[in-house]
Design a protein that fits this description.
Helix content of chain B: 40-55%
Oligomer: heterodimer
Shape of chain A: globular
Radius of gyration of chain B: 17 Å
Largest sheet of chain A: 6 strands, mixed
Structural class of chain A: alpha/beta
Largest interface: A-B, 32 and 24 residues
CATH topology of chain A: 2-enoyl-CoA Hydratase, Chain A, domain 1
CATH topology of chain B: 2-enoyl-CoA Hydratase, Chain A, domain 1
CATH architecture of chain B: Alpha-Beta Complex
Helix content of chain A: 40-55%
Distance between the termini of chain B: 24 Å
Number of strands of chain B: 9
Structural class of chain B: alpha/beta
Number of domains of chain A: 1
Radius of gyration of chain A: 17 Å
CATH class of chain B: Alpha Beta
CATH superfamily of chain B: 2-enoyl-CoA Hydratase, Chain A, domain 1
CATH class of chain A: Alpha Beta
CATH architecture of chain A: Alpha-Beta Complex
Order of helices and strands of chain A: EEHEHHHEEHEEHHEHEHHHH
Order of helices and strands of chain B: EEHEHHEEHEEHHEHEHHHH
Strand content of chain B: 15-25%
Number of helices of chain A: 12
Shape of chain B: globular
CATH superfamily of chain A: 2-enoyl-CoA Hydratase, Chain A, domain 1
Strand content of chain A: 15-25%
Number of strands of chain A: 9
Number of helices of chain B: 11
Strand order of the largest sheet of chain B: 1-2-3-4-6-9
Largest sheet of chain B: 6 strands, mixed
Chain lengths: ~260, ~240
């Protein structure tokens, strides 16, 4: 079976591609396991100074694989807990990488998918990509991504984005500070990402590593207790009968 | 002066002392805290009657009664904490002006709607009062840099500028459009799955933990109360036409 995540290195720039395009790169346990493995490999690569994270196909990442978390079977086996903990741990691991990470948000980045973009040090997208955190609309709680969004755009803005739910354009995401650069069309994305990554790669690896480590320390990025507790909170809400009924109705499985 | 209503799934609390620009007395503040704590609706709109949302504390009362300022400061802290502790979201309809204690109430809001010409700010160091009581909540809302400037600089900002800073989140063209927009937003928020909204609000409160600084903020503001500087500057402010 081909991997669900591809890792390519070209010079000092590595590219990590979520490769499950038929499911809009939704985060399944298998995909997350691959992400963990590839990022573990990267952590040892002293020759890489920039990591680009992107999605194969039209979407960046559609978020958690709802089919898994909305099934009675999945719930009974604690699949949702494993999935959420895996995502929380992966976010810590991605943030803890010594190289600078750039999310290349090529299309929809929803829920946990938008969270992945938020965990990266920088994010680039195009005006019409769909981004956002519609968790509350689905009856679930974006507790894993919340601390990352608070760090990225501040508590006040994060509060509004998460409570108001829905999705927004890439342009709006840029206005709110969720992404750092926005280009007019999808066709402009590669040029912009190459420019940003190329510029980042000119940094001295030692200086970049030290700076990123300090920033991680200052904003509590590597606070594992909060990250894991977020997964617990999110799982707790998912387990409520109200949330389960809503998810099943949405997935067409009957409430 | 605190009026409570229900509009669909939305609770509405109105400050209603329009001839005094809804200036808050200790009694009104206590009523506000009680009204907030008793709110059970899916979402809450906090608004003001008359030309402005709220001009702050009733300074004349503070100058006359040494017990008023401490009661107001403690009440303000309690009001903001009570707003943040509600399970449902809070929308503040800040039309016309939200000044000093009136602006501090925004610290309890998830969404603030204002008109472009609205005047907002904390011009209280000028009267010898420290806005420290609001600091833990304001820095979360707008970030440390703007919070610092907003509390130390006694100038006011426009609705436009407040929106740029992140203190205001929705701008409308004129004061009369603020309340309808606030009610509309609150109704949309009240229609969302309440368990998910409540869990998200509780988690955000936990990770932000602004409440941890609330006691220190209140203590810093209280330390100046009825001191020589405050009495002198407050008396001068009340005498000004």
């Amino acid at each position: 079976m081909p991997g669900l995540v591809q890792l390519e290195v070209a010079g000092r720039i590595a590219t990590l591609t979520l490769h499950r395009p038929e499911a809009r790169n939704a985060l399944s346990l298998d995909l997350l396991a691959d992400l963990h493995a590839r990022v573990d490999e990267l952590a040892a690569r002293a020759d890489v100074t920039v990591l680009v994270v992107t999605g194969a196909g039209k979407a960046f990442c559609a978020g958690m694989d709802l089919k898994a978390v909305g099934s009675e079977d999945g719930l009974r086996h604690g699949l949702h807990r494993r999935l959420l903990q895996s995502l929380a741990d992966f976010a810590l691991k991605l943030r803890g990488l010594p190289m600078v990470s750039v999310a290349r948000v090529n299309g929809a980045a929803i829920g946990g998918g938008c969270g992945l973009a938020t965990v990266c040090d920088l994010a680039v997208t195009h005006c019409d990509s769909k981004m956002g955190f519609p968790e509350v609309d689905l009856g679930v709680c974006p507790a894993v991504v919340a601390p990352w969004l608070v760090r990225k755009i501040g508590a006040g803005r994060a509060r509004r984005v998460l409570l108001c739910g829905g999705v927004m354009s890439g342009q709006r995401a840029w206005e709110l500070g969720i992404v750092d650069r926005v280009v007019p069309t999808p066709a402009d994305l590669d040029g912009a990402v190459a420019e940003v990554a190329g510029r980042l790669a000119t940094g001295g690896p030692g200086a970049v590593r030290a700076t990123k480590a300090l920033l991680n320390d200052l904003d509590g990025s590597l606070d594992a207790a909060t990250a894991r507790r977020g997964a617990e909170v999110s799982a707790g809400v998912l387990e409520t009968p109200e949330a389960q009924a809503m998810l099943r109705a949405r997935l067409g499985g009957g409430a | 002066m605190i009026v409570r209503e229900h509009r669909g799934g939305v609770a509405l609390i109105r400050l209603s002392r329009p001839d005094q620009r809804n200036a808050l007395t200790p009694g009104a503040m206590a009523d506000l805290v009680r009204a907030v704590r008793e709110t059970t609706a899916g979402s809450l709109v906090l608004a003001g009657d008359g030309p402005v949302f709220c001009a702050g504390f009733d300074l004349k009362r503070c100058a006359e009664d040494a017990g008023a300022m401490p009661a107001l400061l403690r009440g303000l802290s309690e009001a903001v904490i009570a707003l943040r502790a509600l399970p449902g979201p809070v929308v503040v309809a800040a039309h016309g002006a939200a000044i000093a204690g009136g602006c501090a109430l925004l610290g309890g809001a998830d969404v603030v709607v204002a008109d472009r010409g609205c005047r907002l700010g904390y011009p209280v160091v000028r009267i010898g009062v420290s806005p420290a009581v609001s600091a833990p909540f304001l820095r979360g809302a707008v970030g440390d840099g703007p919070a610092r400037a907003g509390m130390l600089d006694p100038g006011l900002v426009s609705g436009d500028e407040a929106a740029r800073l992140g203190l205001v989140h929705e701008l409308v063209e004129s004061p009369d459009l603020v309340m309808p927009r606030a009610l509309e937003l609150a109704a949309a928020l009240a229609a969302k799955p309440p368990w998910a909204v409540a869990a998200t609000r509780a988690w955000l409160r936990e990770i932000e933990d602004a409440e941890a600084g609330a006691e220190r903020g209140l203590a810093a503001s209280m330390s100046l109360v009825n001191g020589e500087e405050e009495r002198r500057l407050l008396a001068a402010a009340v005498r000004r036409p």
